């Protein structure tokens, strides 16, 4: 796979917590415009790896290249500037802000007004703020919750809160959208709607890294997958290749495939 066909390349990641080796030489390569799945049984290290990629944990070693440019995952805000936006398994919205305001906060990563501009609000800052509000409205429309723009986020349904988190992440104009268990807690109807939204995001040229426990959703949605177990990569490839891999079957079921 040539470097020109890679959006995110992560190689040789190691992470230790005290006496526990949580990740051992883990890596993946994600192509532009695909949904890439990161799966594994409980305790496999996928959340740790995800948190390393997105700057929540600092790795002990590893090489990270996004869009051809090396980046250092030492802080979430630095990773956001590099072009990775993430959501969390436990929803982290500003509960007392409206849906619109939540998305506007996400957009401010890409705005130019500094502290003085925010205080004195010259015409250029006011124009930029209007642009940010328009952008936020468009994103709420895009994810299907525009009519709830002025609802406080804590009063939205669970499924709509998940969509709002995705809209806020998209507001940063990321090169890579990293989603941590977006279907967690959703009912069957909400999962179908989520799949439709993720399909639309991919069709519009965005690239997605997805951690998800719902294997049916992952296998039906992802272009390619990495499977972790005990902090190591045990399989990588297309969904049908991964699903039939004996090491994956053993990791999930506890018995070797015959």
TrEMBL record:
Report which superkingdom the organism of origin falls in.
Answer: Bacteria
- Would I find Nucleotide-binding among this entry's keywords? yes
Q: Mind telling me which PROSITE patterns this protein's record contains?
A: ABC_TRANSPORTER_2
Q: Which residues form the ABC transporter domain?
A: 8-255
A Pfam family this chain is assigned to: ABC_tran
**MF terms (GO), sorted A to Z:** ATP binding
Which SMART domains does this entry report, sorted A to Z?
AAA (SM00382)
Which keywords are on file for this protein?
ATP-binding, Cell inner membrane, Cell membrane, Membrane, Nucleotide-binding, Transport
UniProt xrefs under InterPro entries: AAA+_ATPase, ABC_AA/LPS_Transport, ABC_transporter-like_ATP-bd, BCA_ABC_TP_C, P-loop_NTPase
Know the name of this protein? ABC transporter ATP-binding protein
Natural source organism = Cupriavidus basilensis
């Amino acid at each position: 796979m040539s470097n020109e066909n890679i959006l995110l390349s992560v190689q040789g990641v190691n992470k230790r917590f005290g006496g526990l080796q949580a990740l051992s030489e883990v890596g993946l390569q994600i192509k532009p415009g695909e949904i890439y799945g990161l799966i594994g049984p409980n305790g496999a290290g996928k959340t740790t790896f995800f948190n390393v990629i997105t700057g929540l944990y600092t790795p002990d070693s590893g090489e990270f290249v996004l869009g051809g440019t090396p980046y250092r995952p030492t802080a979430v805000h630095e990773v956001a500037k590099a072009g990775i936006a993430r959501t969390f398994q436990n929803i982290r919205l500003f509960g007392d802000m409206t849906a619109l305001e939540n998305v506007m906060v996400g957009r401010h990563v890409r705005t130019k007004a500094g502290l003085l501009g925010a205080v004195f609000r010259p015409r250029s800052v006011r124009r930029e703020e209007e642009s940010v509000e328009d952008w936020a409205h468009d994103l709420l429309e895009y994810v299907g919750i525009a009519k709830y723009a002025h609802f406080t986020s804590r009063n939205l349904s669970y499924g709509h809160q998940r969509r709002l988190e995705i809209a806020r992440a998209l507001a940063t104009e990321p090169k890579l959208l990293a989603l941590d268990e977006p279907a967690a807690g959703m009912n069957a109807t909400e999962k179908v709607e989520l799949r439709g939204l993720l399909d639309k995001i991919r069709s519009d040229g965005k690239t997605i890294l997805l951690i998800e426990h719902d294997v049916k959703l992952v296998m039906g949605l992802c272009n390619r997958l990495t499977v972790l177990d005990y902090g190591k990569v045990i399989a990588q490839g297309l969904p049908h290749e991964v699903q039939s891999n004996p090491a994956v079957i053993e990791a999930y079921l506890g018995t070797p495939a015959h």
